[in-house]
Amino acid sequence: AFEDIVARNLIEIRKYGFGDSSDDSTKLDWTAHQFWTIVKLLTQKKSINYDEIKWSSSFNGSDAPLKAMERAELIVIIQKDGRSHSIRPGKPVYYTVFNRLIEDTIFNASMEIESNMALKKQSEENMAKLEDNINKLTHINSADRLPKEIEARIRFLLTKVESCQKTIEEYDTKIKTSKEIISKAWAEEDQEDNHNGKEKTQEKKRGFFFF
């Protein structure tokens, strides 16, 4: 009975949490990447720090997606002293459901690709803004040498560009690794399906000769 409950909730989470539905009218007020971040954290601990997740790179200070998840009953936001304090699953059974999602190798790797692609895009946009600022500062006047304050600012921005580039490369590596995991897991599943198919065929043949 418990497995039936888990299976039913697993389908609901895929549909309403990740938008895994053929119904195009199902518009989520959060991204699959954002919900995946919550899912992963709640498989590691029973509750997560509200402000920490709010200010993470996945949410960038916006609590609108978190409030929307609570309205959808995917999570519960615990209040303390009149403010949002922590986050827990919308139902106790979701602890089990979230772990099942993590254990699904192909789904896990697919969500890691989607998450890292979203974070990579965000970093690329940040880097483009930094490079634009540097370009504007280098053309701030027609003098041969820029003021020391401007040079210091450019050096600071260049270090941020370098940091962004390293982060983008890390995301690329994670995306590549996740794609390799998907290919390997699919091949193993396909091999197992073929093996099971052959066994069933042999059983049918034995049954035919028996009768």
TrEMBL record:
UniProt keyword Flavoprotein, yes or no: no
Membership in a protein family: Belongs to the YME2 family.
Leader peptide range in chain numbering: none
Protein role: Plays a role in maintaining the mitochondrial genome and in controlling the mtDNA escape. Involved in the regulation of mtDNA nucleotide structure and number. May have a dispensable role in early maturation of pre-rRNA.
The protein's name: Mitochondrial escape protein 2
Annotated Mitochondrial escape protein 2 C-terminal domain residues: 1-139
Membrane topology of this protein: Single-pass membrane protein
Biased composition (Basic and acidic residues): 193-211
A Pfam family matched in the record: RNA12
Predominant place of localization: mitochondrion
Any one annotated GO CC term: mitochondrial inner membrane
Keyword NADP attached: no
Annotated GO MF terms: RNA binding
Subcellular location: Mitochondrion inner membrane
Alphabetized UniProt keyword annotations: Coiled coil, Membrane, Mitochondrion, Mitochondrion inner membrane, mRNA processing, RNA-binding, Transmembrane, Transmembrane helix
